[in-house]
Amino acid sequence: MDDTGNSSPICIADSPPQSQVKQTFTAASIELMLKRKDDKNEFTVMVNNLKKSSTAWSNFGFPARLDAGGIYQRIDGFTSCFQCKTTYTFQSDGTGSTKHLLRHICSKVQTSEGPLEKLFKLKKKAVVMLNSTDSTTMKDELTKWVCRSVRPFNIVSDAGLKDVLQTVLDLGKKYQDLNSTDLLVTPTTIGKNVHQLAERYRSLLQPLLTEQAENNCLCLCPDLWNDEYRKVNYLGLTAVFTNKNYELISIDLCCCEYQEIDKSGDSVLRAIRRQLDLYGLTPFMDKKKSYLLLIVVLIFSRP
């Protein structure tokens, strides 16, 4: 069974009438027609209404062509992505495998997602099982890294590490013969990039937080704690709100050194205002409805 190719020609009848004209399609030609922009909308991707269990069909359908009667007729032998129109050959009798469809990475979805969408959205990935040899190799390399660098065992569960590894895998698909030294940067570069990346995300978050504040839907949760070993006080500030999809969103706005001379309500409020000013939120604190925030600050500022 060959269901992974994208160039096997399939001959279909061009209607009407079906007996007079024959046209040969390939996956490449169908993809080209689907991407073509015209007023006729001659080609489209139809939803698979057949009984289905694979999650691949949330992203894929069947290519179809508009006939003379104004009805879309399915082009058998192919399946296409709704978004990027990538087309693959597919067994039309219901026996085709969707494994290669699950591995599909939609380029249009990737390019249309902004930094905030990537930050909040949990992407569904196809489950890939490593064989025992590769699984052991990966396990050994992680163990050697943890022991050699004296890292905690739970670092392998860190979300940031998983994001970095996924980025490396994605780049590996793009570049041939990629070496680890080509990817890593110096500690100095990381230090400089912290400030640049922070400014970038602040600018992206500002309109989102402002919208929530204007609608009185933004909850700010401050926190104070101290490092007994270093004798340093810290201020943390978290924004919490519910988006239009009724999803609870929590964003850490800051984790900075608390530099006020004491922890009185006025001092804590002054420190918080400094951090909120980075997001353009201080005007909302000056409104009459900001008393609740002031009360929360006073509670957190008790010695």
TrEMBL record:
Pfam families: DBD_Tnp_Hermes. InterPro entries: Hermes_transposase_DNA-db. It comes from the Eukaryota. Gene3D superfamilies: Zinc finger, BED domain-containing (1.10.10.1070). Residues 140-189 form the Hermes trasposase DNA-binding domain. This is Hermes trasposase DNA-binding domain-containing protein. It comes from Rotaria socialis. The lineage of its organism: Eukaryota, Metazoa, Spiralia, Gnathifera, Rotifera.
